[in-house]
Amino acid sequence: QKSMNVTEMYERLGIEQAVVSHHLRILKDRGVVAVRRDGKNSYYSLTHEAYFQILEVMEQVIDWIQNIVLE
Fold it and tell me: What's the CA gap between 27 and 45, in Å, rounded?
């Protein structure tokens, strides 16, 4: 599970730093991402709970697609 800081995210996504920070704050408040501080930098990663919820949704989508294909 890779963690990234805000700079890495906004450079990769091509959106403004303030937008990334705003959304990360919302995700943190809702328990989707965890924050690890290292000096001046904060590193964000998915929480284990969010990771497993995403996997569960992906499994449901795959099942749904397979049902469509097999019909």
Answer: 10
